[in-house]
């Protein structure tokens, strides 16, 4: 509970710090697009550098091309990102009157994108773990990849060859579509596996909306094992004050929103 409260207070402080700058932004559509594009670039370079360990060339190829068309014009005119490997901070300038968009990496949290208008002082409000677990034990390897004995069934491998190849040609499943990895598992065996350049089975990747399915699966397992009640109000301290109507929001509500 204390950790949740600390996180919420920190995020609230970040929002307050960014408010004057947002007002100064003036609601310009182009200015907002520029700010969003710069934040996109800072966030993606941060996670690709400090989480995935990709090179700048790989980041340009895998992460900074084929982005949302609405932001492409703003994205194309952005300068190169400034990468601070010591502080694990990435910043991208987009305006002469606004602070750069920034994304900062922290152990256990990964990269966090600061709000539009936030200055470097806002980094002090990002939550951090008081202590970090020791992960020096034996590495058991990943569930999928070179550490798993792959027993390909010839007929299945041949049947999957074409659709897996199509996923990487940027045409068959939609013009400009990008695929970073495909793994097909049947009856506990990997029957197809392919990765884009610069990516393998150990490369950390964004989950995008798959995170929703992962979260739902974890909560479902917790419910099955009797650890949680989905119809119990969500444990968020700031929602339990006074007559705040959010105190009635349950875990089930959050899963179905």
In brief, what are we looking at here?
Helices cover 37% and strands 12% of the residues. The chain has helices at 2-25, 29-50, 56-62, 69-76, 154-166, 210-224, 251-256, and strands spanning 82-84, 89-92, 101-106, 110-113, 181-186, 189-195.
Main β-sheet: number of strands, strand sense, barrel status?
A: 4 strands, antiparallel
Structural class determined from secondary elements: alpha+beta
Lateral strand order in the biggest sheet? 1-2-3-4
- Gyration radius, in Å: 22 Å
Arithmetic mean pLDDT: 79
Which word captures the global form? globular
What percent of residues adopt helix (DSSP H or I)? 25-40%
**Runs with pLDDT <50, length 5+?**
1-26, 139-149
Helix and strand sequence: HHHHEEEEHEEHH
Q: Can you tell me the number of structural domains?
A: 3
Based on DSSP secondary structure assignment, what is the total number of beta strands?
Answer: 6
Termini Cα gap = 23 Å
Q: How many separate helices?
A: 7
Oligomer: single chain
Strand fraction band? 5-15%
